[in-house]
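hey can u run this one w/ thymidine-5'-diphosphate bound, need the structure tokens asap thx
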Amino acid sequence: MNKKNCHIIDFPRINDPRGKLTFIEGNRHIPFSIRRTYWIYDVPGGEIRGGHAYRNNCEIIVAVSGSFDVLIDDGYGRQTFSLNRSYYGLYVPSRHWRELVNFSTNALCLVMASNDFSETDYIRSHDDFLLEVRDQYA
Ligand code: TYD
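ok here u go:
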């Protein structure tokens, strides 16, 4: 499994006349053990979440309900991923700037993270992000 680049992961789906089921096991369906989960909901129309990168934390972002777009910047280029299926997850490695935009009404964004919460792991300035990421490859 590619651990360096941001990409969509297609999770297992169990179809059943009683309803569908999807599951994720850390280090099997995603490239890390799940240490923490959080979810973002009740996002007012037009609001933006994210707007930061992490130095070490990696995440899987899932649109469990509704839809939204994730803008990813690796320091050299930008890419947009549209999430609108509960069986797709976006793998976002550390050192990737992310913004979550275009939330639909009642969108539910579930995030699985590799690390405990740590404010010092955040890079909240895009200028600092570019300096840190580009410095890594200098
Ligand atoms: P933040 O990650 O900045 O939100 P977003 O990326 O969605 O815009 O987090 C918002 C606030 O919540 C910030 O004060 C930190 C706090 N927080 C925690 O205490 N624990 C957590 O696991 C997360 C993700 C955030």
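The mean pLDDT is 95. anyway lmk if its weird
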